[in-house]
Amino acid sequence: MSILCVALFINLGAAIWRKKAEVSGAVMHMLLLFACLDLIYFFSLIDLLKPGMWASLAVVAAGSVAMLARDRESGILTRLKEYLDTGTVLNMFTSLLMFCIYFIRKPILYYWDETRLWGPMAAVTKAFDRLYTIGISITDSRAYPPGSALLNYFYTFFDRDYTDWGQLASYALLFIAVFSRTASVVEEKTGKKALASGVFLFLFLSPYTTLYHTITKKY
Questions:
Q1: pLDDT tens per residue across span 122-175
Q2: Is residue 219 part of a domain?
Q3: In 99-219, where do the E strands start and end?
Q4: By the 8 A CB rule, do 133 and 146 touch?
Q5: Would residue 185 count as lying in a domain?
Q6: Sequence-separated contacts (24+) of 108-116 with Cβ below 8 Å
Q7: Residues 99, 184: Cα–Cα separation, whole Å
Q8: What total number of domains does the chain contain?
Q9: CA triple 95-100-101, angle to 5 deg
């Protein structure tokens, strides 16, 4: 459940922050997500990965509370209309859907590069709360960038143990963020929410028909 909680936390934070920044919810979501990942990466370089994670969540939470306090005089419906746009709503619902699919089916890693590199990198980072390159030797992973391991650590922070399906779900949530941003660009250019939603749906369904690593065809 922690994956879903973190995903919705970032979505809600983006919905609140976007009003102040005057950007779409999809843009704000990606900015917050990447800012959090950057922050925990810099903390991880000094072997303070867990404090860095708490710091990133605290920054998002504090900023959200401060902005909500400023808007407390507005009605609830008014604030919802201001906070929730097409990208935010699509991101929230599809994040919930993907979490349910991965939670029920629980896919595993089985390709060579996954079991040799990406899986062990994320598992060690999760188990020791530190980058796999700091005093830990695992296979050939020390030379590879930590992006996937930190992405998994971010979304599964409140889980007790590493899971393959959790890592795959974190990838899916990143894809959803990119798809939402693409849909928001379409809406900005055309002004048509239906078209933007259609583009998002096409992108969302495309991995199930064109890519080799899907939870419908392989698991």
A1: 888 888 888 876 655 555 555 567 788 899 999 999 988 888 888 888 988 998
A2: no
A3: none
A4: yes
A5: yes
A6: 108/164, 108/165, 108/219, 109/164, 109/167, 109/168, 111/213, 116/140
A7: 22
A8: 1
A9: 100
- The answer to whether position 195 is within a domain reads yes
Side chain identity, residue 182: T
Domain carrying residue 165: 2-210
Over 70: is that where the pLDDT of 218 sits?
Answer: no
- Residue 120: which of 141, 102, 134, 101 has the closest Cα? 141
Measured in residues, the chain has a length of: 219
Take residue 37 and report the two structure tokens written for it: 């990942």
CA dihedral 86, 92, 98, 104 (to 10 degrees): -150
Sign of CA dihedral 16, 20, 21, 23: positive
Assigned domain for 138 exists = yes
List the Cα angle 211/86/5 in 5-degree steps. Answer: 70
Task: Give residue-wise pLDDT tens across range 10-63.
Answer: 988 888 888 777 787 888 888 999 999 999 999 988 889 999 999 999 999 998
pLDDT digits (tens, 9 = 90+) for 174-209: 988 888 888 888 888 888 888 888 888 888 887 666
Query: With the CA atoms of 4, 175, 64 and 74 taken in that order, what torsion angle do they form, in degrees rounded to the nearest 10?
Result: -100
